[in-house]
Each structure stands twice: as structure tokens, then as C-alpha cells.
Amino acid sequence: MTGDGKSEVMLEKSQSIGPINSPGMTEDPGGSEKQLSRTNVEGDQPALEAASSEAHSEEEQPLEEWNKPRKNIIRIVASCYSFLILGMMDSANGALIPTLEKHYNLSYLVVSITFLAPFCGYSISAMLNEWIHKRIGRWGVGLLGTSCQLICNIINVTAPPFPVYVVAFGIAGFGNGTIDAAWNSWMGSLKQANQTMGVLHGLYGLGGILCPTIFTSMIDNGIKWNYGFAVLIGLGVTVLVAIGFAFWGDNAQEYRKSVAKSRSDSGAKGGNLFNVLKNPVVAITAGTLFMYVGGEVAMGGWVSTYMIDVRGGNPLKMGYVTTGYWVGITVGRFVLGFVTGHFKHEEILFVVYLAGAIVFEVLFWAVPSFALSAVSAGVIGFFLGPLFPTIIIVAVKKLPKWLHVSGVGFAAALGGGGAGFAPFIIGIIANSKGAHILAPFVFALMAGQMVLWLVMLKFF
């Protein structure tokens, strides 16, 4: 056989057995190598598919931004406006406590029931938020929550009998809980979460400023206290329109589709309330928020009474101390929220902010000075301000997306329940021991938050 003949035979054999490169590799005309998964032996194919599936599930989905898609801009504006009203609703009772005591001739114990009613509403919403989202979507949740607030304000503008007043705030508590869960879980998952959550909760704090100021000013000028609810009715109608427009299309089908995809990607099998509560991050987040919001609203609700009974302040003017406290919270959320956005470890800054609040709480409690107590109330608010959004942001980062509404939503709603429970307990104790119990009670709640948060840092 000639040399040319041998070459032809060798060429044919090489073509029949394929390339002599390592399995799965071939040469293109330019000499570069490309991976061809189809050239693997058949027995390796399932392994490759499994690896591909695993890689896909671990791949992070790109986060939405405050302006991408563009519809998020109007949704953020509407959510922040909604939280402004939420802050006004949560601070209304605190501003009215001295007036309610006189109008209905009530003791501390009985008037504190006005705080317990929202707690009941919040607690119910905490258990039902995921179920409600699946059936009416964020659009429906926003309309439902705002409608509950409107019902409360329409009832209370008539200065109804005290039991009816209490029930009305229970309805508002349910609505507040659904709104809390919806906007916190959504905005906490955005790329610029620290900044957007700072603004969101800053508007909540602004609502906490406006409501005591409106009610106190009206009462100082001889206007009936219940007419303040007419202002809330007017604002509530505009919120209803804003939410309906901004979240149009974000219905139950869209929500279920999003959750189903995130569960499929993460391999999750279910999202009922029992499975949600088994997650330790959800449990710690809920406990921390419960104590945080409880202390925040207890301070705002009882500080005017404390300044009157313990520090000897003018009953007609102490509503402005409450306003100063909420100013501190608002400024803290706007300023420290943006500061936090420049750091990667929000969980460490939480410890720093909370430690600052504890220091000034001790001064508020231990130093018998009217001026120092008034100033300390505002500084406490400043350091407390960024804590709620920081807790939510850390939880969102630690939890899979399918737990954002059911898990973060549950924690946020239960935290809102603290807004009713803690002030109610203070009312019970103050009825027999006096209003001075406020300072040590809030200090204990702050210490409890620190313990739970350090557990989160250590183990999760």
C-alpha cells in the first residue's frame, strides 16, 4: 500500500471513532475548543441536567429597582403616601389619651383598651396576609387596608360611645397590618432597599408628627377632638385612589405566579403558616419587631402623660413632646436610612443605633429634669427611627423570595400588633403604679431587642 493509501485509511478510522480530544471537546475550524454536552456518554446526561438545574436554582434573579420597571416609581410614591396615613393612624390614640380620659371619664386601665384593639386587628392580619395576597394580590390588599382605615375614621368622627370607638380601631388595626405586610415585603426586596425603606418609614414617622400636631392644635383652639378624624377621612380617600391607580394589574394571578416561580427555583415545598413559623429567621424577626414597635408606639403614646404626671408639664402643651419624639423618628429614618445604605452590614449598624437609643432612654428615666427628658425623647426617636426598616432589609436578605410576604409580612404585621399590646400593658400597670412605669418598661423592650438581634448575628 502506498503512503497516500495509508493516509486515507487512517483518516477514515479517525472519522469513525471521533476526535482524540478529551470527551466532550472538539475543534472548530479556527482551532478553538468548545464544550459539547451532547457528546457525553448517555449515562452522564442525568448528572449534567441535575447540575444545570442546581446552578439555575442558585442563580440570583436580578432585583427590581426603584425606577426599573418605570411603574415602580408611582408605586413607591403611593406606598409612601399610604405609610404617611399609617403613621397618623398609629399615633392618633397617643395624642388623644388625656382628652379621651376626660371625654369618656375613663381610668388609665380602660383607656388603654384603645391600644389593645389595633393589636387584635394586626394579629388577625398576620395570620391571613399570605391567604389574602393569593386571592386579591397587592392591588386588592392596598385597597382593603385603606378601606379599613376609612371605616374606622368615619365611625370615630361622630365621637361614638367608647366601645364603638375601640371596635373601630380594631378594624383599622386589621387594615394597617395588611398594608404593613404588603409594602414592607415589596419595597424591602428592591435593589435600593435601605434608601427606599428609609423614605417609606420616614413618611410613617412624618404621619406620627402630623397627627398629634393636628389633634393638639385643634383641641388648643377649642375645636372638638373628634373632628380631627375628618382630616384622616379626606386623606384616606386620596390614598385609596392612589393605590388603586399605582398597583393596577398587580392582582392575585401575578402574585401567585411570582411566588410559584420563586418556590420552584428554591425547591420549597410549601408556604403555610406553620412552615413559615418554623423558620428561625422569621421567628426572631417577628419577636424583634414586636418589641421594637411596641416600645416605639408605647413611648409615643404615653410620653405626654409621663411628662404631665412625672415631670410636671402643662397638660395642654405636652402633646408637643409627643410631636418632638416623632420628629426624631422621622429625621432618623431619612438621615440614618441613607447612611445605612452606604454600608454592607446593616445588622451591625442596628446594634449601634439601638445602643444609642438605650443610652438616652436611661437618661430620660434616671435624670429628673423636664428639659432633659423632653430632649431625650426626641433623641431616642432619632436612634429608633432606622431600626424597623433595617430589620426588614436584613430579614429579606436572609429569607428566600417565596417567604417575603408570608414570612416578612407575618413578622411586620405581628410587629404592628406590638403597637397595641405594649401600650395596653403600660396602661394596666400605670393604673395602679403610675405613669412613671413607661421609662423602665421601654428600656426592658429595648434590652430584649438587643438580645434577640445578637442571637440572629451569632447563629443566622
TrEMBL record:
The keyword Isomerase does not apply. The keyword Transferase does not apply. One of its GO terms (cellular component) is endomembrane system. Gene3D superfamilies: MFS general substrate transporter like domains. It is found in: Endomembrane system. GO terms for molecular function: transmembrane transporter activity. Keywords: Membrane, Transmembrane, Transmembrane helix, Transport. InterPro entries: MFS, MFS_dom, MFS_trans_sf, MFS_Transporter. Residues 1-11 have a biased composition (Basic and acidic residues). It is a multi-pass membrane protein. SUPFAM superfamilies: MFS general substrate transporter. PANTHER family: BYPASS OF STOP CODON PROTEIN 6. Belongs to the major facilitator superfamily. This is ARAD1C16346p. It comes from Blastobotrys adeninivorans (Yeast). The lineage of its organism: Eukaryota, Fungi, Dikarya, Ascomycota, Saccharomycotina.
